[in-house]
Amino acid sequence: MLRYVKWSAIVLFWAVALAVLHYTLPQNDVVRVTDTYEKREDFGRLNRFFWTRADGSVTAQSNRDVFFIQTREAGGDVMVYRNEDTGWGWPPYFKFDSSNLQAIAADARSSAETPQWMAITHYGWRLEYLSIFPNALSMRPVEGPDVTLVPWKAIIILVLLAAFAWAVWVRWRRFRAARIDPVLDDVGDSFDAAGDRLSARRRRIGDWWRGRRD
């Protein structure tokens, strides 16, 4: 039973960790901007934590004005991005130029007949039933919808996270070998010694009892 609880906790931990990474890490989309607008957005209990304030902290207001960027992908699918500053909050992208990005997006609008393809760097998810939108971080023009975009930012962040995790693990192993394992060995030796004394006492009692019966 404990084994199932242990593996369930491990699976849950990694599922949450991967979900946080997938939401937070920057991703790139190649799209055509069709429109930009500003809308008064009402925040609900289920989606308010997916929005940010101007200072980048988790929103506490019930509603406010938000920039949006409407786009279409090469296959025709629609993708809508919000355009909010992250400020000094989470994720730590230190974005303060949402107004400038909105101006760039408005200038990049194009039609299907004469498309201008843009690479949008963003984080987050698009969940229609919860009114959750990915947050656009930056955008730049590219040659076409089939251009190859290497996610260098995500790769660098993952490498830094892996290096940090490795450093923590190595220090934990050293601390455990120096401080915890000797204590556990002493406890184990104490239990073994106590068990040996108990066995010896039981043997003496058994010998005494057999001597009386004889």
TrEMBL record:
It comes from the Bacteria. Keywords: Membrane, Transmembrane, Transmembrane helix. The lineage of its organism: Bacteria, Pseudomonadati, Pseudomonadota, Alphaproteobacteria, Rhodobacterales. This is DUF1523 domain-containing protein. The chain crosses the membrane at residues 149-170. The keyword Transmembrane helix applies.
